[in-house]
Design brief:
Helices cover about 25% and strands about 25% of the residues. It is built from seven helices and twelve strands. The longest helix is centred in the N-terminal third of the chain and has 17 residues. The N and C termini lie far apart (about 75 Å).
Length: about 280
């Protein structure tokens, strides 16, 4: 049951005192989040307006030869975000004596249309990964993440994920010693290794899901696959979907003036310039 405290002379606006409210209050949430109804919404995704500054920034980080971004959604899950923030503060405290601070990386994880909503609500699940011993693998490159998934159909989905890395260890190429590596204690912190890295690829394995957050959901196209067999429209069942505000200017939709008008205007400007008017 939600605990509320009635405020004001007429008790019109009850105050929400749940922990989830505190997790996203006082500027703890990312500045690109929009207000959400925490009483009724577990999670919502907000589409980033195309041709806005945020969209261009996401596209620049994602863009690789052969990949085309179709749309991007900001994932607003205050429950998962609160876990992530608490774990980040805990890692800072634990690594303080070792004179280290946890690094926050942006890594990529490709998924399919049957699992993406589960990730939005509950985060990634190591039990569903091909290598359940190592955990969930995240790539530094979107192209590598796309190739690892092996989906032969368009349109595709990928998460741009925030990942905390405190004590990282190079993993064995085979999974034989992954378990012993993960429980290996650091000599400086006496804590288990939190991240494994593949020795030959920019692939990081995580087992503690409170150290990752699915920040942006990307809908994209692989140009090597000629046809789209899936719709570009993202259908959701359990989360709320909306459209964020942003720059509405779309150069592809702006119709140029009549060519004759353009030429006449240019000639007038030239004449005015010649006569010093």
């Amino acid at each position: 049951m939600v605990e509320v405290v009635k405020t004001g002379p007429f008790n019109r606006k009850p105050m929400d005192k749940r922990f989830v409210k505190q997790a996203v209050g006082f500027n703890r949430a990312p500045d690109y989040w929009t207000p959400m109804d925490l009483q009724n919404n577990e999670c919502k995704i907000m589409e980033v307006k195309k041709y806005s500054a945020h969209y261009f920034d996401i596209d620049a980080r994602f863009r690789r030869p052969g990949l085309e971004l179709i749309s991007a959604y900001v994932v607003q899950n205050p429950f998962l975000w609160g876990q992530y923030m608490l774990r980040r503060e805990q890692m800072k405290m634990q690594l303080k004596d070792a004179k280290k601070i946890p690094k926050e990386k942006e890594l990529f994880y490709a998924t399919d249309f049957t699992r993406f909503e589960q990730i939005l609500r509950l985060n990634f699940d190591p039990r569903l990964e091909p290598d359940t011993v190592r955990g969930v693998g995240f790539f530094t490159e979107a192209l590598a993440a796309n190739q690892s998934f092996g989906d032969t159909k368009n349109v595709k989905l990928m998460f741009m994920t925030k990942v905390l890395i405190g004590t990282c260890l190079l993993s064995a190429e085979d999974g034989a010693t992954a378990t012993s590596e993960q429980i290996h204690l650091s000599s400086k912190t006496e804590l288990p290794i939190d991240t494994l890295r593949h020795p030959k690829t920019n692939l990081f394995y995580k087992y503690n899901m409170s150290e990752v957050y699915p920040d942006i959901l990307l809908v994209y196209r692989d140009k090597q696959i000629p046809l789209d067999t899936r719709s570009c429209k993202l259908k959701v069942k359990f989360v709320k979907k909306g459209l964020r505000s942003g720059t509405r200017y779309n150069p592809d939709e702006v119709k140029p003036q009549n060519e004759g008008d353009d030429q006449e205007q240019s000639q007038v400007q030239i004449v005015l310039g010649v006569h010093g008017l």
